[in-house]
Predict the structure.
Amino acid sequence: MTVLKTSMRNFVAHKGRMALSAIAVLLSVAFVTGTLVFTDTANATFDRIFQATAADVSVAPKDADDEELRRSGALPTLPAAEVARLAKVEGVRSAHGDVNTEAVTVVDRDNDDIGPSSGAPTIATNWDENERRAVEITSGHAPRGPTEMMVDADTADAKDLKLGDELRVITAHGEFRAKISGIATFQVTNPGTTLVYFDDATAQRELLAAPGRFTGVGMTAEAGVSHEELKRKVLAALGPAAADYDVRTQDEAAEANQKELSGELDILKYVMLGFAGVAVLVGIFLIVNTFSMLVAQRTREIGLMRAIGSSRRQINRSVLTEALLLGVVGSVLGIFGGIGLAVGLMKLMAGAGLKLDTSELTVKTATPVIGLVIGVVVTVIAAYIPARRAGRISPMAALREVGTPASAKAGRVRAVLGLLLTAAGAAGLVAAARADKAADGGLALAGGILFTLVGFIVVGPLLAGLVVRVLSAVVLRVFGPVGRMAERNALRNPRRTGATGAALMIGLALVACLSVVGSSLVASADEQLDRSVGADYIIESDNRPITPQVEQRIKAVPGLDHVTVNKGLEDAEITVPGGRKVTKELTAADPTYARDLRLETVAGDLDDAYGDRSMSVNEGFAKDHRIKVGDRLTVDFAQGGTAELTVRAITSDDTLFDKGAMYLSLETARAFIKAGDLPPTEVMFAAAKDGEEDAAYAALKQVLDPFPQVDVRNQADYKELLEDQMGQLLNMVYGLLALAIIVAVLGVVNTLALSVVERTREIGLMRAIGLSRRQMRRMIRLESVVIALFGALLGLGLGMAWGTTAQRLLALEGLKVLEIPWPTIAGVFIGSAVVGLLAALVPAFRAGRMNVLRAIATD
């Protein structure tokens, strides 16, 4: 009880000093709990909509869930007669055929795509009984013929659509127009999908180009018949044909959809938790420093407690109890902060098109428990070393005010251990840079990053003594005596300076590493684009097929030398020498593709691979299966048809674009695959006639203006796109890393604030002998700047080493250009100095306001 009272008294007495540490715990816990609440809410939202839209029992052809097929429009279907047969199964109250596709673009009168900008799909479907589970017609009526359609209310509101508006619908098979006859409102949260509805006949004819066929069947069970029982009866009715279908209950269909989506949400969750982990790690340094300084400041008090009978265990327990209180307070606040963060993320995502209703916020029981455990455990672990140090204080030494015992031997051991760890990490980085295989190098890189990071943290005090002196000679000496005093203050406790700088080092090391990797990726892509891509224009569709109508318009553009069509042939089964069958994707293209993408060959001529009954294979595939030019391979196409093709070329794997691709001509593909079964075009290339590049580009832009789902880019546009995409990714990463940097800045503030308190008498004496308030504030600010620059220098150096090594591994995958983003590195270094100045504002102000006489009289 005495220990608890003492701990409570100390905690309250130092509440101001504990506040910044509590904020670090709060931010770390908030990021963890906010991530969990956000992803749990998203999962729950999608689960509700999947449950609402799933039939009691559904039947769909195999591969109907394949994402590529959904986007291409080449969906497997079943005849209407199958729907009628399943409607007669015992226990079925009603059965309805479904038409569902994502290979559709809907544009308004201004040729603007009404689909979501968040990446969510536009789904076109037929209006039937099952749709009434999720939506209700709140305006107008359901579509009744080929000129009518219905849209969801969220899309109508977002795109300012109303009844009677005519929309143009572009499908994988052509286009048609229809007017809005009705608007349907979701009865559950719509996370951002655009839905358009048609009557059965229009959906079959226009969306599938398959009158009388459906993409699936939904059945409603009679009263008293369970979903599982109905599924068994449907399977029995299908008989041997059941092997060709996926038969699912409502729960199974919802689970399958959720599983498909949860993979992407899980990636987001684990990435965010990874950054939260970085913030937690940085927070540990802040807490260690806080308790170390508090223990040092209470040396005499601890000595008195030991002198009157307190044991080492009681002193240890007292400090850990304070840490426990700090962890509980910070964690509880962090849990509420995390819920607020989740709400903020949901509103931010709503602006990007992903709509999650905050009224359906999902906070699982485990979430606050996880947050509380993380906050408390991390805080107690961080305070353990200072607590042990407090327990080891000798009563007589404490009463003589010699402070906590400092062991020169311990310092030497720490320095040796840190150097060994750093050397081991450096060896790992060197091994990774020299690796012949990316997989082997990846393990060495991970080990190198871990050991160099830990090594720099352990050897931090030794580095502080060296680096701070160098930085001071460059930065501080120009400020005269004040600068020298700031240098001595930073060097007075190298362990404290090292820990404070290490907190900032971690965040900036990750920033530097990712900057190097990102810049190298873009530079490598630009270099490969210049070296490999011969086409003047690249024409792509946004995850949707390029329709034959668009193809014909592109081919008719004046000023073009040639146009190349490229089609991906999914899951072709290739019989290699020895009789083994291997499933690979083949690329069917016009022969001009050999000019549009200038790939190097290690054997044969790529032009010959586009000849009759010929093909190419990539270098890795040829080595794995001992294939050489002239070999004949049997190819079974997924779309039907079997061909004997001769290998005419082996392409090099030393490329970024189309790495691993295997080619044949479109004419060869058409000889063995029925015209209606060929997959749609997703990318095209074009080259202009000499001197007509600008005119042809303008003509292409004009021709494709009515088709917003199709983009045409020249090489400069494509480079800009790559840079923008990488820039957006890096900005998002930097935003997440900002949390760790904020915690590190709090560490600098806390170190300075406690250091000012620790040096109260010294500050009073300096003021008494003539140091002005302004000089005092400048000294504190310069001390802060040099600590921040120390952490930045270590972090940026370490991060560039990591990034350079990672680039050497990426070079094995064709990314051979190393690009150091010096402006970013310089900006971060200068920004660190600014951060140091800002972090010192409050401590410097407090130091300048001290009463001289009271400061001198302080014990």
